[in-house]
Design brief:
There is one protein chain. With 443 residues, this protein is mainly β. The chain has three helices and 30 strands. It has helices at residues 2-22, 67-79, 162-174, and strands at residues 50-53, 83-87, 90-94, 97-99, 103-107, 111-115, 125-129, 132-136, 141-144, 150-153, 156-158, 189-192, 195-200, 203-205, 212-215, 218-223, 226-228, 242-245, 248-253, 256-258, 264-267, 286-292, 295-296, 299-305, 311-333, 340-361, 377-397, 404-420, 432-438, 441-442. It has a 28-stranded mixed sheet that branches. Strand 7 (125-129) and strand 8 form a beta hairpin. The longest helix has 21 residues, at 2-22. It is globular and about 65 Å long. The protein starts with a helix and ends with a strand.
Length: 443
Amino acid sequence: MKRPFFLIFIMFLACVVSAKKSTKDMFPDGSEIPAWFRDTTHVDLSSLGRQYRITDYGVLMDGRIYTRELQALIDRIAQDGGGVVVVPSGTFMSGALFFKQGTHLYLEKGAVLRGSTDISDFPVMTTRIEGETCKYFPALINADHLDKFTISGQGTIDGNGLPYWKAFWLRRSWNPQCTNKDEQRPRLIYISNCKNVQIENVSLQNSPFWTTHYYKSENVKLLNLHITSLYEPVRAPSTDAIDIDACRNMLVKGCYMSVDDDAVALKGGKGPWADDPQRMPENGGNENIVIEDCVFGFCASCVTCGSESIYDHNILLRRIRVDRATNLLWLKMRPDTPQHYEYITVEDITGNAQNFLLVRPWTQFYDLKDRQDTPMSYSNNIVMRRINLECNTFFNVTPREDQYHLRNFTFEDCTVKARSTNYHPEYIEGLTVNNVTVNGNKI
């Protein structure tokens, strides 16, 4: 009697172990998502050191620009061993600020840190913008080579972008070929070469240019952020909510994003030799990016690979509500840049967007420079499943076998209402379709 009972017990344990294995959270490539991604513990203000209220150090609510006083306070906190810059309720003005190791930013409820509309308050320096390392303007909030930097609270960082947006459109009306960088405007937050960063709960609004930009950073958590910019009556050009540029291990959770461009854009470099580490060591790929439990309002795309991106791997977009997005997933295939987008999963989505999937060449400011051939690009192992979406077009894919190759896409358990049922499975090698209906008809 003991032997059968023992065997039954072993079988029971095996079933338990098997069940545990089956419920493991996985990246699109099948590797396990580390526990770090499930830890959403809030920033503990009391653990960050002494708190320095800016009003105790000569910063007033009188509409003047207090860059010098605020930077002096940041420098002092760093020299004294670290602590927190506390912005109390009220509106305070500043130009570019550069946080140091051990310093943090906290915005109390009702606090507004607002950017200057004078571009001279943002000194030209070497930075990263639009897939290039070059001279340009810093952001309002800058952090470089920091460990454990945080921004938290219930207040607002406001880029004061309206004058910048108007100036951009005025310049564009004079010169339709002007680029984003031709019109001088800062970003809202720029995090570079950092690790163990957490930004949570604050509102980020009205950025003159990209709202938040993360470059060559790892272990970054963006939690419960409210990121917005205008799209009417004045459009806020290129105010991407989150630009991820050559980063590893990022969690975007519980955020609301409504901006006049991409919500989450994956970047990393551009140009015909962008993937050559000898020529372009400043470039890089993005790996292990989880975007979950978010709401997307008006935006060009929920997730975009490009237009300055060379390698994206393990990108997971899940449990999302979409309202008024142009694209759910946009793969920008830039013909002057070698690109590889792989292991991207989009799942558990509801709402509406103009395009379920958009894949096409991106030729704005195309420049092959000294390269004689067109570099080939690739997109593979793209999964879109458990999606209930109303859209204009389900399958908006432009084939260009001379420029890029699409392989191993999967559409599964999707219910789509579309104005256009354009569908060409032959455009993708190894396309798998399982339980997908478009306008009530299975495809």
